[in-house]
């Protein structure tokens, strides 16, 4: 019984850490991509408007 509890705790901790790291990386990548796209769109629109105004002045 003692070895069962020991292996159970070991397995539990291992899978917990694994899933935690996985979800952490997933959310990190998701937020990174989201901010990247947001910055890209913002810069694109800004440059487009700027060039448009500049060429018509």
From TrEMBL:
**Superkingdom as given in the UniProt entry:** Eukaryota
- The name under which this protein is listed is Uncharacterized protein
Q: Which organism is it from?
A: Wuchereria bancrofti
């Amino acid at each position: 019984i003692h070895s069962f509890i020991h292996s159970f705790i070991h397995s539990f901790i291992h899978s917990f850490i694994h899933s935690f790291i996985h979800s952490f990386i997933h959310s990190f990548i998701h937020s990174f991509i989201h901010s990247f796209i947001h910055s890209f769109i913002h810069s694109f629109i800004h440059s487009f408007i700027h060039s448009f105004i500049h060429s018509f002045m």
